[in-house]
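[step 3/7] inverse_fold.run input=structure_tokens len=562
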């Protein structure tokens, strides 16, 4: 077999999984074999109930797009496919959102609502009953209650950043109760989340010495969630009068997490290994744990869509855009390619770039498991008899010239490139985000200062970038911070919300997205040309997701978003 393969692309393979191994936090014995009464008469079973709440959290490795009309294609979805950073495979519901069709039947919104309220229901049951569990281990009981408060706050934070104000249900509900509950205001939801985070942080441990406990909520996780929620609360979408005290609150909350560094948290030195390393990874604040052989993000019926070159039978549902690639700066100057004096060579476009670019995605010339990636096309873009646009002979191959490397656990890809399923964790919160949250909030509150530059440089230095000059205006540094978030947190489902909370959707999501045409000439040379892939449509009303239609039919008191 030829050792060079064209069109190496990646797909986020996802599946829902259950828990089966008794020793691992996220591999537990099912608890549906005992009654509710028994669960809260035995602290061991109560502990397992809390573990089940962790397991019900939705992660980026498990996000399923049920809106697709073919069962074999359900399963791969990343919310950032709704942004200018990713082009999805043909005919996914995400692509219809890119075309301007975001409606109350949007399958990902329906899933977000259902999964989070399922978690909240379990959490309310635990919090209502745990005080009555007979045990002498009161410290464990207090900790489990605090963990559950954090998990409930996390679910509400996920809901409010998507939908705005939602119904605050904080007590155990019965079938005889009035289940039609109106929405609370966004500010009321934020106040509740912050209270829960503070109460959880006061009880939770900074870390767990036992490796079997990794994945549990910690003091730092509660504080980091608080900082994130306060940052959203201060942002233009939710703070139209730009009340500066909100930015100050967000900055101070982030500082509480930063105070735990470097003893508890720090930046991992390698951007790719950050997402593969479990033990001793000080950058991870909170993550969903996966462990072989039972807990992998693999779908057996989707192996042909896994992280493999098309020459080995894989096909791509995930294509990074040229828009995102252009956000990665030059190592020599610290400037984006489009900035004057950057030193960018359009015919050698990946030379001297931020090293996170090569660790996040695959491009022409990348090295991947001993293979040189080739994404070039025929010089005659219209010569192919299948009529496929842009000279691509297979519509499943990369549409942009880029594939995914970040998150690909390549150690589990066999010699014949059959993907065996990754068991790396999905990271919900990490220290780099906290530093970026602080830099943004502090700059918005009082402008650039040494602490803002230091936080940014600590994140940027991993990409080999030079220190920032200490001469930015507040507005110029705001743009730098926003670009840094885009690069550092790419594909981690931040941009879909960042651009909305900044109220910049009409700027970034309503216009063209670009691809890189890579042409191999007759003499073997390569020509690179940036070209429009498609034009996207966005509406100001899309800054919040629509309340799912099915939920409004169940609950007549739910009012729609504008």
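[step 3/7] decode complete -> sequence:
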């Amino acid at each position: 077999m030829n050792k060079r393969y064209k069109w190496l692309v990646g797909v986020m393979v996802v599946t829902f999984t259950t828990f089966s191994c008794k020793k691992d936090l996220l591999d537990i014995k099912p608890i549906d074999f005992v009654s509710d009464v028994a669960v809260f008469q035995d602290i061991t079973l109560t502990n397992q109930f809390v573990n089940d709440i962790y397991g019900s959290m939705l992660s980026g490795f498990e996000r399923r797009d049920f809106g697709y009309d073919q069962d074999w294609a359900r399963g791969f979805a990343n919310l950032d496919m709704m942004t200018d950073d990713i082009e999805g495979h043909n005919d996914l519901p995400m692509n219809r959102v890119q075309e301007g069709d975001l409606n109350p039947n949007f399958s990902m919104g329906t899933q977000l609502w259902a999964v989070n309220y399922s978690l909240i229901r379990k959490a309310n049951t635990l919090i209502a009953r745990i005080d009555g569990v007979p045990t002498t281990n009161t410290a464990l009981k207090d900790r489990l209650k605090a963990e559950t408060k954090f998990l409930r706050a996390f679910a509400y934070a996920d809901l409010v950043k998507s939908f705005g104000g939602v119904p605050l249900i904080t007590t155990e509900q019965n079938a005889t109760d009035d289940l039609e509950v109106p929405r609370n205001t966004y500010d009321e939801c934020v106040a509740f989340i912050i209270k829960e985070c503070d109460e959880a942080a006061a009880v939770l441990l900074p870390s767990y010495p036992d490796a079997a406990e990794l994945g549990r909520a910690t003091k730092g996780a509660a504080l980091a969630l608080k900082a994130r929620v306060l940052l959203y609360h201060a942002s233009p979408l939710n703070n139209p009068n730009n009340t500066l005290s909100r930015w100050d609150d967000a900055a101070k909350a982030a500082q509480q997490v930063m105070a735990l560094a470097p003893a508890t948290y720090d930046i991992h030195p390698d951007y790719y290994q950050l997402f593969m390393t479990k033990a001793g990874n000080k950058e991870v604040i909170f993550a969903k744990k996966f462990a072989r052989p039972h807990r992998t993000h693999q779908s057996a019926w989707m192996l042909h869509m896994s992280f493999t070159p098309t020459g080995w039978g894989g096909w791509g549902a995930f294509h990074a855009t040229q828009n995102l690639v252009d956000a990665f700066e030059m190592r020599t100057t610290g400037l984006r390619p489009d900035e004057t004096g950057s030193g960018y060579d359009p015919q050698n476009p990946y030379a001297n770039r931020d090293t996170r670019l090569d660790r996040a995605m695959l491009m022409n010339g990348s090295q991947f498991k001993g293979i040189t990636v080739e994404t070039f096309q025929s010089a005659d873009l219209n010569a192919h008899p299948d009529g496929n646009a842009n000279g691509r002979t297979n519509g499943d191959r990369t549409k942009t010239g880029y594939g995914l490397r970040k998150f690909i656990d390549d150690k589990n890809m066999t010699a014949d490139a059959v993907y065996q399923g990754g068991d790396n964790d999905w990271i919900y919160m990490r220290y780099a985000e906290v530093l970026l949250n602080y830099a943004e909030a502090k700059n918005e509150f009082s402008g650039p200062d040494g602490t803002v530059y230091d936080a940014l440089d600590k994140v940027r230095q991993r990409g080999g970038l030079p220190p920032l000059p200490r001469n930015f205006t507040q507005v110029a540094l705001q743009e730098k911070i926003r670009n840094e978030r885009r690069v550092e947190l790419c594909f981690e489902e931040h941009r879909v919300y960042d651009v909305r909370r900044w109220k910049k959707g009409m700027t970034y999501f309503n216009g063209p997205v670009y691809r890189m045409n890579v042409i191999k000439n007759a003499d073997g040379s390569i020509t690179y040309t940036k070209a429009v892939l498609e034009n996207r449509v966005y509406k100001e009303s899309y800054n919040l997701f629509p309340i799912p239609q099915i939920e409004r039919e169940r609950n007549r008191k739910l009012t729609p978003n504008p």
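[step 4/7] annotate
The chain has one domain: 1-562.
The longest strand covers residues 526-535.
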